Amino acid sequence: MPSLRLLLAVTASACASAIPAQTTTFGNGCGPLSGPSLVARSPAVLGGVLDLHSELGLGGLTYYLFGFSNQVGSLGPLPMDLGTLLPGNSGCNLYVSTDWATVGPFFVGVSHSLMVQLPSNPAFLGMRFFNQALVISPFLSPLRLQTSNALDITIQ
What we know:
This protein has one domain (20-154): Macroglobulin (MG2) domain (Immunoglobulin-like, Sandwich). 30% of the residues are buried. Strand 2 (37-40) and strand 3 (49-55) form a beta hairpin. The protein is globular, with a radius of gyration of 18 Å. The protein has 156 residues and is mainly β. It starts with a helix and ends with a strand. The protein has a 5-stranded antiparallel beta sheet, with no helix packed on it. Strands 2-3-10 form a 3-stranded antiparallel beta sheet, with no helix packed on it. A two-stranded antiparallel ribbon has the order 5-6. The protein contains 1 helix and 12 strands.
């Protein structure tokens, strides 16, 4: 008689093959050097590590924003022009809801990676979330931000 653990493992394996890990980009980066870019250098798979890599232009303090929507955020509809909130940032868009954020280290340079451990629980299979990087740079005038493109990620 099969055990519950074996049954769950077989079910998770069958579901994993039916839901492909998927990452697509949308939106444009904004900043003095044509804006930062954000890419996922590894697939989003259960129990895996998602490698988010950003090419950030001037460097600074990076906030990685995670959200469950690319349609509406806590401040209204998305995308949102950050110039409506912070003068001098017109044309820089917030593409994702800010349900969770983490701060990367301050760095001087042009690239940075954030490694995100994904859960191994099959309940997260097929979960979709969105990600964007926002950089506060000391090399720019006060309250001037750099924003990346955004990612649409589905966990396999």
